[in-house]
Amino acid sequence: MINREKLKIKFEEEMKMFDSLHPASKKMFDKAKESLLQGVPLNWMVRWMGEFPIFVEKAEGAHFTDVDGIEYVDFCLGDTGSLVGHGPKAAKDAILNQFEKGASFMLPTEDAIWVGAELKRRFKMKFWQFSTSATDANRFALRLARRVTGRSKVLVFNWCYHGTVDESIASLNPDGSVSPRKGNIGFPVDPSITTKVVEWNDPKALEEALKDEDVAAVLCEPVMTNVGVVLPDPGFHDILRKLTKKHGTVLIIDETHTMCASIGGFTYLDDLEPDVVTLGKFVASGIPAGAYGMSEEFGKRAVIEIESEFGVAKGIGGTLAANALTMAAIRATLGEILTEEFYVRNMALAEKFNKGVQSVIDEFELPWSTTQLGCRTEYVFSKTPTRTGTEAIEAKDNDLDWYLHLACLNRGVIMTPFHNMALMTTATTQEDVDKHTHVLREVVKSIVD
Ligand code: PMP
Q1: pLDDT at 309 over 70
Q2: b or e along 271-300 (b: 16 or more beta carbons within 10 Å of the residue's beta carbon)?
Q3: Distance from residue 161's CA to the centre of ligand 1 (Å)
Q4: CATH of region 4-84+340-445, choose from 3.90.1150.10, 3.40.50.2000, 3.40.50.2300, 3.40.190.10
Q5: Minimal-distance CA residue to ligand 1 atom 8
Q6: Cα three-residue angle 426-431-437, rounded to 5 degrees
Q7: How far apart are CA 286 and CA 273, in angstroms?
Q8: Once rounded to an integer, what is the mean pLDDT over residues 365-385?
Q9: Which of 134, 151, 327, 369 pairs with 94 at a CA distance of 20 to 30 A?
């Protein structure tokens, strides 16, 4: 049982320890505030535990060192942007080599052909296009879906996350209506106009929302990953596919995170048959990149629509998208890093990580549960795995969450902020995993009765 009084006291102690451990980061943060909004180049970076973010000096594999000279085991890996580890050699060589030969031409290189064919093999999607982020891949997939169907609405699941895609930052209210998600700043139009939201694992609500045949696309992950891991009920994907087909709605499966589960995400693992698959994050080892693959039928319809607009799809693309550097990085990442062996090794390690967490849960009889998703693991403050976004949000415990992240960080272990997620990469060792278990046990012990 967590003792809230102890939790409060310990949290204050950890905050003081954080300050005393990081004078150089604090100095940099103060300097950064002179020119960067909130003292960071991206506003998300202030959402780490502690009064200021730690500044990174250098990283290698599954570890990084901050500007105060402290080394960390990195289980966050850039929230999957570096799932392949920091600076994997194959990608480094390919990136340096291509940079010497030229980075950006607005013309294709041979690598693009290799990458297209490899993605086609993995995801069974016939035609591929590229973007500079997963967010953009989702945005472009939605544009094409709207154009092809002639419909305007998008359907997403409550508490989903697909990047900063305007239509998807919407919440389901208890009365079934839709509102802008709290913190959705400056939305272009009220998402209730653009978006329908239903709970994950609710086929009835899904059918109800699709039956008016005004929904261009359903955008979803195969497994929800942004509010902890929320698995689909058995058969839910079959129903989703059946209903979207029946009502002429495009099904977009966002595999940005779930490609941690296999070489072709759940589309490959579970033989899903979406119309479009989207990807990003680690697919180019940290060089900004996104990709979206289309079924033959959807691709052909999309091409006709694009060509009817003088051959150029306005609002789709970007000059740096699919450039030579990106394609070289994706080729090396898929060809030499994200191999079957990568998944076999790191899934076994993720299993061990979860066993370690489970041993702490058992020892202190905590009402928590763990879930593994390929190389990704997560524990949530709920005795049983959650089934919907709402259940997952209700299981959140911010005080506990902040304390655990902060106390782990102070002991050299980095967990992903906002949730208790850890990623395993080839450079992660058994000792790293054991260190996490040891630290978690120590920090939990100090706040329980
Ligand atoms: N899709 C999913 C499922 C995500 O979780 C995210 C980001 N966490 C994105 C897309 C967007 O990725 P990015 O911010 O790199 O564009």
Answers
A1: no
A2: ebebbbbbbbbbbbbbbbbbbbbbbeebbe
A3: 7
A4: 3.90.1150.10
A5: 163
A6: 110
A7: 28
A8: 96
A9: 134
